[in-house]
Amino acid sequence: MNLLKFSKYIISLILSSFIISKSVAQALNNSSQPNIVFIISDDHAFQAIGAYGGKLMPTPNIDRIANEGAIFRNSFVTNSICGPSRATLLTGKYSHKNGYPLNEKKFDVNQFLFSRLFQQHNYQTAWVGKWHLGNLPQGFDYFSILKGQGNYYNPDLVGTNNDTTRHEGYVTDIITDQSLAWLDQRDPSKPFFLVVGEKATHREWVPDIQDLGAFDSIDFPLPVNFFDTYNDRQAALHQDMTIETTMRMKEDVKVHLDYNTGDFKRLTEDQRVKIKEYYDRISNEFDAKKLSGKELAVWKFQRYIKDYLAVAKSMDRNIGKILEYLDQHQLVENTVVVYLSDQGFYLGEHGWFDKRFMYEESLRTPFVIRYPQIIKPGTNITRFASNIDWAPTVLDLAGIKVPNEIQGMSLVPLLKNRNVKNWNDELYYHYYEYPDPHRVSPHFGIRTPQYKLIKFYGAENGWELYDLKRDQSEMNNVIKSKKYSKVIADLKSKLVLLIDKYEDDEARKILSEEK
Q1: CATH number at residue 43
Q2: 354-382 pLDDT per residue, tens
Q3: d(Cα 507, Cα 457) in Å, to the nearest integer?
Q4: Do 390 and 340 belong to one domain?
Q5: How many CB atoms lie within 10 A of CB 262?
Q6: What is the mean pLDDT of residues 254-278?
Q7: Which of 30, 84, 119, 190 has the highest CB neighbour number within 10 Å of its CB?
Q8: What's the N-to-C CA distance of the chain in angstroms?
């Protein structure tokens, strides 16, 4: 064998050895701890998702996760607001326990974070996209996070070395590309835990250029309670989050845009031309209509919902890219894929946008999960789950012991057997932020399969009760009805037990002062 042939032979052996080693490492990983991809969106309403019966738009990729895994029909949050929901994810604790009940503060990253347990158990960890907790992430080997709320176009991201870089393009594409790039460079001999933090579908809903006008041909039906008058619901009456009066014509509805503000001042020339062409046409159409009163409110709803859904369209498409990556890299069988939102959102119900209230549209959040090794395709779960359960669930799936300080419960028993007995189908909720934004009075309460009891305090002081079997739209506050006196007494007793269970001293004090 001459020297040239011998050299080629040696190189071939080395390459083969590398490929075999990589395959063996991947196989070892596939036979032990699962990988986890945790996709958390922002303000994505369950009623806009096909798997939840939503008819507003198709969501084939989110639906795919549900169809190939499990869908939770009664998944709730404990404080319906962006940052606090992420703090609950990271700690498995209520806001009063993790110290982050309000937005736009600094979350204490030095406290217990379940991601650190993943690091201690051989996992590679990463968070890409929206973080929105005021401090840089801890418990992650790699991060690339949006500054604050982030921007839809050409966003700035802060990296692991605390360097800030502007990335040209649409934010949902950028978050996906960076997530997949991190997966490409990971160590295949180790399992991974990746959080994909979507900005979508947060206000002010600026769609990707390719999705502009995607729903313009559709005249969406108004929710039945769009013109709610809030009878016997003082907190609902005095909020400031209606489409009719709160939603801004320029920033939200995008009529006569100022292209030197917000996302628009970040646009490249090519982006600016295309976006300006679209929204200038919308503005001209609006001017010609000369709308006012209820007609204007309905027009604003149509513009809001079309931009909102167009933003969601890009997100679902990008979730498809992530699923396709897992397909192509033979990672499906041993990877847990979770999709959920940080809370629900109003798509015109009660005349609103935003979240915060304990009413159903903002309390309920989508939650679908796929893991072929233990979850049968098409699993439908109606038992209660909440965001304090997210951390213990993924820890349990990874075979990591759940610490006692976590207040939530692993949902794995439900994933394995949906007929689990003695499951707690009672949810405790507590919202704090007042007065800005939106003037939603602080409140706490209990939700059971049939009833919802809410205690408002502070600016508004009073109780509300809803019989969800008879009043799914929560329009009839029956707290004064003698017919429900025994129900109210029972719910108040259960509420006290939950307050004690979760050690909510503020709520306990408020109830004690009422007696």
Answers
A1: 3.40.720.10
A2: 999 999 999 999 999 999 999 999 999 99
A3: 10
A4: yes
A5: 16
A6: 94
A7: 84
A8: 96
Q: Closest Cα partner for 468 from 410, 384, 370, 395? A: 384
Domain boundary among 304, 329, 349: 304
Which tens digits make up the pLDDT trace of 385-427? 999 999 999 999 999 999 999 999 999 999 998 789 889 999 9
Report the alpha-carbon distance of residue 499 to residue 481 in Å, rounded: 25
Residue among 38, 317, 21 at smallest CA distance from 192: 38
In angstroms, the CA 76 to CA 386 distance is 5
Where would I find the H helices in 124-199?
171-185
**153 occurs within a structural domain:** yes
Q: How far apart are CA 106 and CA 100, in angstroms?
A: 8
The structural domain count of the chain equals: 2
Q: Is 334 exposed, middle or buried (0-12, 13-18, 19+ CB in 10 A)?
A: buried
Do residues 397 and 412 lie in contact, with contact meaning Cβ atoms separated by under 8 Å?
A: yes
Classified as helix, coil or strand, 380 is strand
What is d(CA 239, CA 17) in angstroms, rounded to the nearest whole number? 66
Q: Angle formed by the axes of helices 60-68 and 293-328, to 10°?
A: 50
pTM: 0.93
Residue 162 lies in a domain: yes
How many secondary structure helices (H) and strands (E) does the chain include?
A: 14, 14
For residues 363 and 75, what is the distance between their CA atoms, to the nearest angstrom? 8
Shared domain for 284 and 355, answered yes or no, is no
Quick one: average pLDDT of 462-479?
98
DSSP string across 109-159: TTS--HHHHHHHTT-EEEEEE---SSS---S-SEEEEESTT--SBS-EEEE
Q: Is residue 164 part of a domain?
A: yes
Q: Name which of 380, 385, 223, 383 is nearest 305 in CA terms.
A: 223
Task: Provide the token pair at 260.
Answer: 């030197």
Residues 90-141 have pLDDT tens digits of 999 999 999 999 999 999 999 999 999 999 999 999 999 999 999 999 999 9
Specify whether the CB–CB gap between 469 and 450 falls below 8 A: yes
**Does residue 62 come out as left (phi exceeding 0), alpha (psi in the -120 to 50 range) or beta?**
alpha
Q: Rounded to an integer, what distance in angstroms lies between the CA atom of residue 305 and that of residue 348?
A: 8
Range of the domain at 91: 32-204+320-421
Let me know if residue 433 belongs to a domain. Answer: no
pLDDT value of position 262 = 81
User: What are the beta bridge partners of residue 66?
Assistant: none
Report the alpha-carbon distance of residue 394 to residue 398 in Å, rounded.
6
Question: Shortest CA distance to 154 belongs to which of 170, 132, 165?
Answer: 170
Predicted confidence band of residue 5 (pLDDT cuts 50, 70, 90): low
* Separation between Cα atoms, residue 151 and residue 170, nearest integer Å: 9
Task: Report d(CA 400, CA 215) in Å as an integer.
Answer: 45
The token pair that represents 286 in the structure block: 């609006």
Structure tokens at 432: 């704090």
Provide the Cα torsion 426, 440, 406, 361; round to 10°: 50
List own/partner pairs for 508-514 with CB under 8 A and 24 or more apart.
Answer: 510/444, 510/455, 510/457, 511/455
